[in-house]
Amino acid sequence: EPTEVQVKPVEGKCILVSGHDLKVMESLLEACEKEGIKVYTHGEMLPGHAYPKLKKFTCLAGHYGGAWNRQHHEFAKFPGPIVLTSNCLTEPQDSYKQQVFTFGAVGWPGIKHLGEDFNAINWSTVTKLAQSLKGFTAEETKFSYDPVSGHGQPSPTKPQMVGFGHDVVLGAAETVLKGVEAGAISRFFLIGGCDGDAAQRNYFTNLAEKLPDTSVVLTLGCAKFRVSDAARARLGQIGDTGIPRVLDVGQCNDSYSAVRIAMGLADALECKISDLPLSIVLSWHEQKAIAVLLTCLHLGLKPIRLGPTLPAFLTEDVLQVLVKEFGIKVCNDVDADLKEMMDAKAAS
Fold it and tell me: Which of 30, 77, 166, 252 could share a disulfide with 145, CB 3.0–4.6 Å?
């Protein structure tokens, strides 16, 4: 359900949970609720704040940091243990590796592992460490990490709205369609996928900041952090509906929701998905993104822009097949791409 998430410290001992596994997050919250330890999400755990079963815990304090690739900027500044629940782990640095715990398939030599069964996690080692570390003090009113890395990757400093899965968005379909008919919505943009910190990936940051004020952005995966606080503030809400123009659909695992939204809008407008005023721009970085892409191609979602860098195994011959047969486009110049998308009457 739609939920505003705070991005600031709360006084007290704390634990950070990162990755994707919401069941592990629930188990951690149960343990911390008993001990009065604050829990902060990181990376793609941000959407966890929107689930009623998780947001009921009073120890869930807010969100800390940005995408997985900013660990070295952010983990060193966190004053408590850090729990990684999926493969979004980069080599832990000496400054914080003693605070790191892993669970399930993710691990690193010399890093403490919590096992494979979320029903049998012993949190005592983690909570004891949390009690022994500084935690956040009353004097700290904002997080101390640099909110922007060397390549301009934004980390949020303002409250974040999450919880716009397909049930919520399609439940407001009538309002959204009225916005399209009245000209309050000119185009939908899906900006999502698995992001990285290479300089070229500023493409997505710049695209979001240059979108017309009449745009609506669906975002998911860690690419959500490419939509900066400034872009969210400028886009604001759809008229006086109270519906934000940036709709956080969830984790990369929630791509299904984005597809359902596109299909639902097409049904409501009595048109094909390819006739929607929809532009799909995906950050392609790792294997899950490829699985999502294949699903989109199977469903006939096109054109899809990929990039700005493509994986090494994507040979020129394969790329040409995707371009010719499936309408794939490679991200190029932001201004030129945006003009092409806005000039199109249908999907582009």
Answer: 77
